[in-house]
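Researcher: Here's a chain I'd like modeled. Treat it as a single chain, no partners, no ligands.
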Amino acid sequence: MALPKRNKYIIAGLIILFIILLILDIILGSVKIPFNEVIRILSGSQSSNNTWLTIINEFRIPKAITAILAGSSLSVCGLLMQTYFRNPLADPFILGISSGASLGVALVVLTAGSFGVNLYVLGNAAGNVSVTLAAAIGASAVLLFITFVARKINNNVTLLILGLMLGYIIGSIENILKYFSTMESLQGYIIWGMGNLGNVVWNDLYYLIPIIALGLLFSFSLSKKLNLLLLGENYAASMGVNIKSIRLSIIITGGILGGVITAFCGPVAFVGVAVPHLTRNLLNEYDHKILIPSVALVGSILILMCDIISQMPGNNQTIPISAVTSLVGAPVVIWIVIKQRRIKHSFKME
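Model: Modeled as a single isolated chain. Structure tokens:
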């Protein structure tokens, strides 16, 4: 389906904004680097200052790439959850997926420290793989549980409450693990829990980029089936969609997209719930073939913007990224609640 001219202009503007924010995210920071030096480094030329070269290549570029990956994956994960549950407030956090990922990381990081080895702090290949797998398994396990309950309960509000209660239970388990963990493990987990894009280095991106890219591509391949799901499972089944197969696909994809980013960057709140709604209202579009890439683009823009704010350019302090995204995303959730009737109509909820 061809895009309306209005949407073509909007997407073109979003792409330009994305490029500007990406450049600004690399330029701005606690260390002031001249613009011409940044351009020289990005073009592959040798800088007159080796420190600037190291800051750009080893810190700011990986962090900017991580912001793009985090924004796109969490946003698409939120879109999948909202379509799957046909609920406008569904996202990785509210449904407990991020809590499950956090528990998986806690089990690896905090219990490993008890044996004298902290996989997260070491930051080696084994540690990265263990943390990533644990986060993905934890996220998928929670989503599988919610899916099982969803088949028994036809009430979206109940499912949201269930997700919140799961978050409290998981939080309690994490507190118990913290109490019995070593100081080194506890410190690593607390820092991880604040949310930080700057912890990801090039070696981490070798794992992160292909996983997220495959998750996003697979999500896009489900576009037609997701469109049918908006009209209800019965209608989708009548059109030849294998409901069990699409459920499993969404569970695995959502668990990986939400869990892997949580593993590497820590909890990043409200992006999954806010960005799909911002994109739908901006484009007035519900076709997932258009929505999925658009949501990924808007999510990347939002995280890049939040990362620039969190760095507080010119200051040595860095605000946790989750604190900034919460300030942006929470008002969107409030708006969703206020406009609930209109959103329900958009989702064709029965």
